[in-house]
Amino acid sequence: MEAPADGDLVERLPEDVLVDVLRRVTGPRSLAVSRCVCKAWRAIIDGEGLLRRQLPFSGIFICFRRLCLPEFFSRPASAGQPIISGKLDFLPRAIELRPDGNYYIEDHCNGLLLLQGSYIDDHYVVNPATRWWNALPLCPDNRGDYFLAFDPTVSSHYQVFQIPYLDWGKYEINPLEETSEWPPSPYILHVFSSRRGCWEERLFVREGDAAGTVAKARVRFEGQQNSVYWRGSLYVHCQSDFVMRISLSEDKYSVIKPPTDIGWSSYLGLSEKGVYCASFVENAHILVYTLTESCDQFEWILKNDYDLKPVQMFDGQVNGPWTIQDINYEIFRSHLPNINKEEVIQENFEWNSDDDDFNENLDIVEVQHRPYFEMEVLGFHPYKEILFLSRSEDYKLNAMAFAYHLNSFKVEKLGSIYPTGHDYFNCSIPNESHEIESFPYTPCWIGETPESVN
Predict the structure, then answer these.
(1) How many structural domains are present in the chain?
(2) Are 399 and 429 in contact, with CB atoms under 8 Å apart?
(3) Which ranges does the record mark as transmembrane (predicted)?
């Protein structure tokens, strides 16, 4: 009698046994390979959210230009989960109390942070969860912005792209240059590869039309210049609000023009269905779009127009369930005057980012009578259609964070994002998006690190 093949034996396993086996697979790459075995395994891994547990959404890093270090706004870890610290005290350069800061987050991708140090030429790739870091060598041309591409389900290696920035305050202008198309094709970019350990010039050919001319693109960027890494492509939010989609494997790029009715301070982010864009418009509303791609054609689809009045008009303060770690206060407290830091007492409710259903027992925001006008986008939930917002009074008092559930239209208050000792640090949490930048963070507990390590 012929013995059954191994594949037949696996297919005979009860589903609950197979689920338990797959739950024991460690490492995002191993799970990603398992997901490709068959449709049944893919359905279990996706249905149980096993890959998401390898990259759990744990909080939001917030950079205040006037603070020395980024702050981390997080929900306290559940029982059995490792505590994520936003401190960067393991990095090589000593942290000092200085007005121009020490480390500033330029980008985040799947658990890695791209940091700029005290000097414009200092760049580091950091994994806060494992306290691993790598200093990048000097880029041949530092006139640009830096963006990170990393997928731990494919490789432990990462790439850093330097995208040229057109100086909008340039006094000497070449008329011929101003009429040329932007971005050019071919487009030569400096790219750092951790596999090779050096910067290289790479040539990318454009598919489709340019965004316009150099003159039209030479504008001041209003908002946070984000990037999104999605399915092997890097989407970069560029000047004049177009998005550049860079295919890493094909050395090609495409220009995606912004939605026709886009407002101001638009925010590019990653969420459940891929690439999203949020943009403020008049009368306390925000528009949220999703990007669709078909036959090399791109289209922004309006998900909805969301009323922000429930967030603006909420009157009161909430202690938790999320808290800001007060990294700057804890590190520099010996240099600060006596500050009575209030003990944060958690209120009796929980926030579960992995729960598809909105918890009706949560304390829902109700419209009151005190206006709060200044608002910021803090980011999108990477796995659920949730938009995070901050709101504050004049002079940024009572700054709080909210979760706007985009399908149920319900708003949940999360907690204060106002750092302790902000007056001493001269941190007024300014409303301009280029003064405050935020990055939803998914820690990655990878077992290996690239060869070029500290």
Answers:
(1) 2
(2) yes
(3) none
Closest CA to 107 of 80, 82, 136: 136
Domain that residue 47 falls in = 6-52
For residues 347 and 362, the answer to whether their CB atoms sit within 8 Å is no
pLDDT digits (tens, 9 = 90+) for 229-274: 999 999 999 988 899 999 999 999 999 999 887 777 789 999 999 9
357 found inside a domain: no
Same domain, 46 and 59: no
CB-count burial class (<10 Å; 0-12, 13-18, 19+) for 103: buried
**Nearest partner of 246 among 256, 254, 238, 237, judged by Cα:** 254
Which whole number is the average pLDDT over 146-174?
A: 86
Q: What is the dihedral of CA 427, 429, 430, 431, to 10 degrees?
A: 180
Residue in 166, 240, 164, 243 with CA at minimum distance from that of residue 208: 243
Q: Write the pLDDT tens digit of every residue in 8-55.
A: 556 667 777 787 787 777 666 677 777 777 888 878 887 776 766 667
Share of the chain above pLDDT 70, in %: 75
Round the CA-based radius of gyration of the chain to a whole number and report it: 23
Helix then strand then coil, in percent of the chain rounded to 5, is: 15, 35, 50
Give the distance from CA 210 to its chain's centroid.
27
Output the pTM of the full model: 0.84
Dist CA 443 CA 330 (whole Å)? 22
pLDDT attached to residue 357? 39
Environment class of 236 (CB within 10 Å of its CB; exposed 0-12, middle 13-18, buried 19+): buried
In a shared domain, residues 270 and 383: yes
Single out the residue in 36, 52, 68 at which a domain terminates: 52
By C-alpha distance, which of 5, 435, 9 is closest to 223? 435
CATH number at residue 368: 2.130.10
Q: What is the mean pLDDT of the chain?
A: 80
Residue identified by tokens 């306390």 is: 284
How does DSSP classify residue 4?
P
394 and 302, same domain (yes or no):
yes
Band of pLDDT at residue 183, cut at 50, 70 and 90: very high
450 lies in some domain: no
**Higher-confidence residue: 359 or 296?**
296
Give one DSSP letter per residue of 307-339, joined into a string.
Answer: E-HHHHT--S----SSEE--HHHHHHGGGSPP-
> Is the CB of residue 183 less than 8 Å from the CB of residue 165?
no
| Strand 323-324 relative to strand 374-380, pairing | unpaired
Q: Residue 351 falls within a domain, yes or no? A: no
Taking the C-alpha atoms of residue 17 and residue 219, their distance in angstroms, rounded to an integer, is 58
